[in-house]
Structure formats: C-alpha cells, structure tokens
Amino acid sequence: MTTHQPEVNPDLSSDPQLANLDLNSGLPPKLNLFTMFRLGLFQMGLGMMSLLTLGVLNRVLINGMEVPAVIAASAIAMHQFMSPARVWFGQMSDSKRLFGLHRSGYVWIGAAIFVVASFVAVQVTWQLGDSINLTSGWQWTNSQLGWAGVLAFVFAIYGLALSSSSTPFAALLVDISDEEDRSKLVGVVWSMLMVGIVIGAILSSSLLKEIANDTPVAVLRAAIDRLFLIVPSIVFGLALLATVGVEKKYSRFHSRTTLVEREDKITLGRALRVLTASRQTGLFFAFLLIMTTSLFMQEPILEPFGGEVFQMTYAETTRINAFWGTGTLIGLSATSFFVVPRLGKQATTKFGCFAVAGCFGAIILAGFTHNPAVLNTVMFVFGLASGVVTSGAISLMLDLTAAETAGTFIGAWGLAQAMARGIATVAGGLVLDLGRKLFSMPELAYGLVFALQAIGMIGAVVLLSRVNVQEFRVSAKQAIANVIASNQD
C-alpha cells in the first residue's frame, strides 16, 4: 500500500469552489445573515409547494370530489415514496458536478421539473373528477382507478425532482457552514420554510376567497388552475434567487475533503459503507422515521377536519396553515437562537416531542367545541411545539453528517423524513377511513388520527435517548479512513 498527501492545485481559478478562498485563512468567507436568509428563499418555495399539494389539492380530492381519503392520500404520497432516490442524488452531488458545481446544478434542474409536474398533477385531477361525475360518485371503476394511477405517477415524477433538488440543497448547507453557526443557519433556513407556508396560505386564501363549499366544479377548476400557475412560477424564481453564486463563493467542500480526485473515488457503494459504519446512523434514522411520521399524520386530513367538523370554507381551512406556520416560524427562530445553545440539541428535541404530544390532545378537545377560533389557537401552539422539535432534530441531523460524504448522509436523513412523510400521508387517510367505520361522530374519527400521533411522539423520545453523536463521529471517521486506505491500496 502506498500513501501520499492530497495534492493542492495552485491554480485556484480552475475550480470555481476554490476561486473564492480567503488568502489569510485558506478558507472561503463565513456566511453572513443576509446570505442565510437568501438561502432560506429556496425553503420558502418548498413550503409554498407543500401547501398546494397536501393542502389545497388534497381537500379538492377528499371534500370536493369525494375520493376516498386513502386513495387521495396514497396518490399524493407517491412523491414521498420516491425518497430512496435521495441517497443516490446526494451521492451524485458528492461525486459529479453539474455546471461546474457539486450542488447548485441539481437544485436548479430539480426545481424546474417539480414546478411543471405540479401543474400537470392538477390537470390529471380534473380528469379524475370527470370520471367520478360520469358515475355520480366514486364507484371503483377502471376509469377512476386508472386516473388515480396516473395522478400517482405524476406525483412520483414530482417526488424524484424534489429529491434531486432538496437533497443537494441540504448538503450545500453543510458545505458552506461551520459547526458554530450551523444552528443559526438551520433556524433561518427552516424558518423560511414556515414563512413559505404562511405566504402560501395567505396567497391561496386570497385566490380562493370566492370559493364556497358548494361552488360549481368549473369555477373551482379555473381558480385552482390559476393558483397552480402563479405559485409554482414564483417558487422556481425563488430557487434561482436563493442559490445562484452561493456555492461558488462559500463552499468549503474541497477544503474539508481528505480524498484526492474524489469524483473518481467516492462511489455509491463506498459511500454506503461509510453510511452504515455506525449503529448510531440506524438509531437516528429510526428516530427520524417515527418522529416525522407522528408529526405529519394530520397533514392530509387537517383541512378536511376543518371543513367537516368546523364547517369552514376552502379559504378558511387554508388559513389554518397560516396559524400553524406562524407558530412554527416563531418556535424555530427562538429555539435555534436561544434554546438549543442553552439546552443542547438532544434535550431540546426531547422537550419538543413531549410538547407536540400534548398539542395533539388539545386538537382532539378542540374538535368538540366546533369553534374555528379555538382550532386556530391550538394550531398556533402546535406550531410553536413543532418549531422546537424541528429545530432540535435538524441541528442534530447536520451534526450526524460526515463532511466527505455529506450528500450521502443528507440523502439518508432525507430518505427517513420523506419516507415518514409518505407513510404519514397514507396512514392519515387510512386511519381516518378506519375511524369513520368505528365511530359515527366525525370528531372521534379524526381524533383517532391525532391520538396515534401523540403515542408516536412519545416512542420517538425513547429512541432519541439512545443516540450518541460522539460515537457516530468516531465510527464515521474510521470508516472514511478505511475508504481512503482501500483507494490507495
């Protein structure tokens, strides 16, 4: 076996990620607050998109067209079940450049595809609605199931594009930040996700304000088509505005790696060897899976809950997301800047899990009041608790990431979260359908979903108690050293 030191290219201009090195420190400049908020524009766009798919389109299917909740949720959830591709896209961004950059090119191409796919999904939804009208309701006909399958396929394409964009973006956050400013970056960027949900809720509510529960389908169709043209166009513009030039100026990717010509060295198989080297990886993966599933099971049934139990209009149920998003925004910001530095990432996440579990109990009780103001207030508090657990978990996630294979690790964590969101979306619809068979009162049917979520959050705390960041770092470092040794053998 032969060993040698990594070579340094004296011509910094030949590599766009080395061209901006600070000559005094040998590192790119540190992130400033303006750039953190600028990066958050991408997450803001994702928040707006999630509201359109899991909020507006989901209610159209369940309440407007009376598609069974499990069918609607399963079709939309297909974009989450494409999440295994996140590991591959993460590894690709580690090893292969697009437009001379490791992360940004994937972000741009993925964003272009998922905004187009979202509009196509709406058009397929109308075809599904036409097939339902022909039989005066859902009858499990070949035509209805066929269009539901096409809708699921479109959401699969949407999911692949989302994976190819969001995973390299999260890896970019690792590349451009240091450990001491990472919790602030997380707080800012993921707060902007909530800003996107709030802005999306306000914009959607404004564009749908004339839509009542009994509005003819033709009028509903025109309003929602307009919504799905305007918002995705804005989202694509935000993706470009957020990322153009950032990687070239701030990335520490090359200064951190210990591998020479790593484009030829880090194959997917070798990256997976690093990924599976620590039992802590599996523990944290399981925690993310259970915590995220428990946190988001209400997402596909929340707006139908507001419509059926509280008799709220489309615009009113869309605004529920604004209360939840505002609470989450405040919780994220306050936690990242004030709570995590004092309590630590793990303790903060545990506290957030317990708080979220309590909020689900409050949502169940709110259903029996039939008062929309009570629901909105509880959703705001739920948002605060969600912000705490999200901030703690994401900060911990970025700590459990090895620099040399950041894209692969972020892909794995993204896989856990996306799988969980997919499971949550389907489970929310499935449990609601089960609750309707078990209970005659809709309050109890929806309450069954919320009760299972509370139980899941408690289970997540048990797993989190076994996660050890230091053990992860030691085993990952050794695994990377083994990869280097095998490359040099």
Structure description:
This protein has 489 residues and is mainly alpha-helical. Helix content is 78%, strand content 0%. It has a single domain (31-246, 264-488), classed as Up-down Bundle (Growth Hormone, Chain: A), CATH 1.20.1250. It has helices at 33-64, 69-81, 85-95, 104-134, 142-176, 179-207, 217-243, 246-250, 253-256, 262-265, 268-275, 279-296, 302-309, 314-343, 345-367, 372-399, 406-438, 442-464, 469-488. Helix 6 (179-207) runs antiparallel to helix 7 (217-243). The radius of gyration is 23 Å and the shape is globular. 55% of the residues are buried.
Outline the fold blueprint.
Elements: H1 33-64, H2 69-81, H3 85-95, H4 104-134, H5 142-176, H6 179-207, H7 217-243, H8 246-250, H9 253-256, H10 262-265, H11 268-275, H12 279-296, H13 302-309, H14 314-343, H15 345-367, H16 372-399, H17 406-438, H18 442-464, H19 469-488
Helix pairs in contact: 1-2, 1-4, 1-6, 1-7, 1-13, 2-5, 2-17, 3-5, 3-17, 4-5, 4-7, 5-17, 6-7, 6-14, 6-16, 11-19, 12-17, 12-18, 13-14, 14-15, 14-16, 15-16, 15-18, 17-18
